[in-house]
Amino acid sequence: MTICVIIAAWNAERTISRAIASALAQPEVAEVLVVDDASTDATIAAAEAADDGSGRLTVLRQDRNGGPSAARNRALAVSEADYVAVLDADDYLLPGRFTALLAIPGWDAIADNIAFVPEARDDLAVPPPIDAGDYPARTLTLGALLAGSISRRTAPRGELGFLKPVIRRAFLDANGLRYDEALRLGEDFALYTRLLAAGARFLTIARCGYVAVERRASLSGSHATGDLAALLGAVDSWAAGARLDPSDRAALARYRAQLSANYRHRRLLDDKRQMGLPRALFRLLDEPLTVPRVALRVLSDKLAPPGVAPAPASAVRYLLPR
């Protein structure tokens, strides 16, 4: 069983070497495909310099910046491995990650725990290697994914869309599944919903094998209004044709309500700057059910201390309960 690790990279010259080295250190990895998304720095040179001479590293370059989905799809078109795994260019894998995951049978996708390390502690607090303890595998359902993707403003981000599974390539191909290239936000979540809707057996374990470095300037933390609009449209398009049981449909409704409120709030702020508050409020009424949620967000922003940004957590935290 061979694995291809896909790394979409944009202006990642400082971190790409560590990401590549952590993937090449895994004996099950037959391919590491780095797709440079039209970087303006020395990402390509740094990636090529990380080659270990084993012949497993390939560095591709996009002619224009198309976002992570387009970069990952290009890698999927090139890869020949049995399984694929995504690694973000800021992040890295812990030793023995794939050995532990491949020892678990009976899945189409499997994800382990993620340790979130604040950028300020990136070089100081490295989580321990993969735990030797017993961590039973649990089945991730579509309803659980949707419920677990609803964020809380008072807590650090920890949506299940952050999971970085190993996925069986044959399942992707048999169901015609690829990343949605219209998305620059939530592209992983969108793929996972379609995997589960297609009948994939998706397992999770609380053992940690992936480290994500939390950076203030990361793409996932700096999305624009248009990114939220694109994700909302993708969710609605998928939901219109999906066959969901009542509980999954209810979980989807809750997730969509929050996503819509996030989008309307962001759009309200844009409209206020561009056309003034009265016209911005009038436009908000095109979806009346979101008004209370948006109002709460506005009130929360008003009550927050002026000029004070939320400080990142000082300790390593984990995505899944341990």
Report on the structure:
α8 packs antiparallel against α9, α9 runs antiparallel to α10 and α9 packs across α11. Helices cover 39% and strands 17% of the residues. It has 322 residues and is of the alpha/beta class. Strands 1, 2, 3, 4, 5, 6, 7, 8, 9 and 10 form a 10-stranded mixed sheet that branches. It contains 11 helices and 10 strands. It folds into 2 domains: 220 residues, Spore Coat Polysaccharide Biosynthesis Protein SpsA, Chain A (Alpha-Beta Complex), CATH 3.90.550; 79 residues, no CATH class.
List keywords for this structure.
322 residues, alpha/beta, Spore Coat Polysaccharide Biosynthesis Protein SpsA, Chain A, 2 domains
Radius of gyration: 20 Å
Which whole number gives the mean pLDDT?
A: 87
Distance between the terminal alpha carbons, to the nearest Å? 28 Å
CATH architecture of the largest domain: Alpha-Beta Complex
- Biggest β-sheet strands, sense, barrel: 10 strands, mixed
The global form is: globular
Named CATH topology of the largest domain: Spore Coat Polysaccharide Biosynthesis Protein SpsA, Chain A
Order of helices and strands: EHEHEHEEHEEHEHHEHHHHE
Summary of the model, kept short:
With 322 residues, the protein is of the alpha/beta class. It is built from eleven helices and ten strands.
List the helices and strands and how they pair.
Layout: E1 3-9, H1 16-24, E2 29-36, H2 43-49, E3 57-61, H3 68-78, E4 83-86, E5 92-93, H4 97-102, E6 109-118, E7 138-139, H5 142-147, E8 166-168, H6 169-174, H7 187-197, E9 202-214, H8 225-241, H9 246-275, H10 277-284, H11 291-303, E10 317-318
Parallel strand pairs: 1-2, 1-4, 2-3, 6-9
Antiparallel strand pairs: 4-8, 5-9, 6-8, 6-10, 7-9
